[in-house]
Design a protein that fits this description.
This protein has helices at residues 2-9, 71-82, 98-109, 126-133, 136-142, 150-159, 166-172, 202-205, 209-215, 232-239, 255-258, 260-274, 285-290, and strands spanning 91-96, 116-122, 146-147, 177-179, 189-191, 219-224, 244-247. It has one domain (2-290): Alpha/Beta hydrolase fold, catalytic domain (Rossmann fold, 3-Layer(aba) Sandwich). By secondary structure, the protein is an alpha/beta fold. 37% of the residues lie in helices and 11% in strands. It has a 4-stranded parallel beta sheet, with helices on both faces. A 3-stranded antiparallel beta sheet has the order 3-5-4. The chain has 13 helices and 7 strands. Its EC number is 3.1.1.89. It comes from Phaeoacremonium minimum (strain UCR-PA7). Belongs to the AB hydrolase superfamily.
Amino acid sequence: MSDLQKAWAKKKLNIMAPEGFNELDEDHEDGHLPELPEINDDDSSSASSASSTGTIVPSPSRNLFARPLGPPRETILLAQQQMNWKELPPIILVGHSLGGAVVTDLAKSGSLGSSLLGYAVLDVVEGSAMDALQSMQTYLSTRPSGFATLQAGIDWHIRSRTIRNAMSARTSVPALLVEDDSFGPSRPWRWRTDLAATERFWPDWFVGLSKKFLEAKGGKLLLLAGTDRLDKELTIGQMQGKYALQVFPEAGHFVHEDLPEKTAQVLVDFYRRNDMSALVLPPKVSELLAQGKRV
């Protein structure tokens, strides 16, 4: 779903920003990720994965949440099997943009039971997301349809400030593109996901997100790139202390890529606040009396 995510980041920016801009400091060497394998899932919805890099063929009979106990929960259970866990450990769900809608729906379903400590949603709010969808076709018609090289695709993401951290762009962008020589030698690197093919599902992706976010059980964290993204329901919820809010105004829509270290620290702190395993409760009065102690 990276294309949808980019539309949000570009809502108040020009399609192509000036060449000069301040990159974040980086001490890493250049490197590329290997191309991800394609996913075959004939029974998938158009967005059955919280990942933004899979190739999914939309099915008219399926929508994002058509299977309440479907791919998100199945993925967690597969991880449990792979790690040989007898039972699920304490879990914090984290989702960005559309992924935030997926993890919120999973949290609201209650299918993870007491294993779910909380969930964190990165830069997605129902009201703003619905508004952004209205300009999606315009965005899709103006972005490059392909790139001459993989590096050109990375450079475009940095130059347009879709991703504001060069190291993050070099890490994540290769998985968003696939080389297809059938388009000719001029621009063989094409978008892995055909977002336009999922248009019929767009209106359903974020409907009811704010309500589910506030009502689901567990700790709640909303990490935004700006407070202007809050809708009325979430603003009221914040005033009532129903969730934790963290704002990084210096970041774009890809908060976790623009500021990876700060985002990681916020998530670690969120986990620690909700982890009760290290909590030591004082002994009960009845236990003290049974031990012959005065209370």
